[in-house]
Design goal:
This protein is an alpha+beta fold and 169 residues long. It has one domain (3-162): NADH Oxidase (3-Layer(aba) Sandwich). It is 36% helix and 17% strand. The protein has seven helices and four strands. It has helices spanning 3-11, 25-35, 55-62, 70-73, 91-108, 122-128, 159-162, and strands spanning 47-52, 76-82, 112-117, 135-143. The protein has a four-stranded antiparallel beta sheet with strand order 1-2-4-3, sandwiched between helices. The two termini are 32 Å apart. The mean pLDDT is 97. Bound molecules: flavin mononucleotide. Flavin mononucleotide is lined by residues 13-14, 16, 67-68, 114-117, 138, 151, 154. This is NADH-quinone oxidoreductase subunit E. The chain crosses the membrane at residues 98-118. Keywords: Membrane, Oxidoreductase, Transmembrane, Transmembrane helix. Belongs to the nitroreductase family. Residues 10-64, 74-144 form the Nitroreductase domain.
């Protein structure tokens, strides 16, 4: 039993403040390679990751809404894009699996990740030149966590709150 991995999963928190230090591109490629190992229907891997370092682009994205400001504080932004044209029935589940593989592997190497709700956000799609047939799933801020940043404590539902046995009842 790998209790340490269970602890790792439960200790992960969203990070919204970062050190200035850049993230090595080879490391990013490695994390994306890990993401490509995520379970996905028929192994079609219907996703793309756009790596963004341009300050102007990050600034534009950070203005999408109130909860997007941390994009500008991160050395790297990642746009996760799903490809319904590659896997029409399952792309949504597939791309979320790949995103989570990416996020967890980032934590495993000491990086922090923040999320930004940007699902099919037309402004963001335009800024990033994402074609119509592709779906912007989320934007992530990524970098080495600011050691001063302390996420607010959170509580989670108990197993009893979310488990049903045998049928919906
Ligand atoms: C699809 C999705 C959209 C999110 N959108 C935002 C957002 O726009 N801004 C933000 O600061 N956090 C965003 N989050 C992060 C959540 O607020 C966060 O995951 C949740 O509060 C649980 O906290 P934790 O990640 O620290 O465990 C988003 C998370 C997900 C999965």
């Amino acid at each position: 039993m790998r209790e340490d991995i269970l602890e790792f999963l439960m200790n992960r928190r969203s990070i919204r403040s970062f050190q200035k230090k850049d993230v090595d591109n080879e490391l990013l490629k490695k994390l994306i390679y890990v993401a490509n190992h995520a379970p996905n229907s028929m192994n079609r891997e219907p996703w793309k990751f756009i790596i963004i370092r341009d300050e102007k682009t990050k600034e534009e994205l950070s203005k999408l809404h109130k909860g997007a400001s941390h994009l500008l504080l991160a050395p790297v932004n990642i746009a996760v894009v799903g490809e319904p044209d590659v896997s029409p029935d399952t792309w949504m589940v597939d791309v979320v699996n790949a995103t989570m593989y990416f996020v967890l592997s980032a934590y495993a190497v000491g990086l922090g990740v923040g999320w930004v709700a940007a699902y099919e956000n037309e402004t963001a799609k335009k800024i990033l030149g994402i074609p119509k047939e592709k779906v912007l799933v989320t934007l992530l801020s990524l970098g080495y966590p600011d050691p001063e940043y302390k996420p607010k404590p959170k509580t989670v539902k108990s197993p009893e709150d979310v488990i049903l046995y045998e049928k919906w009842s």
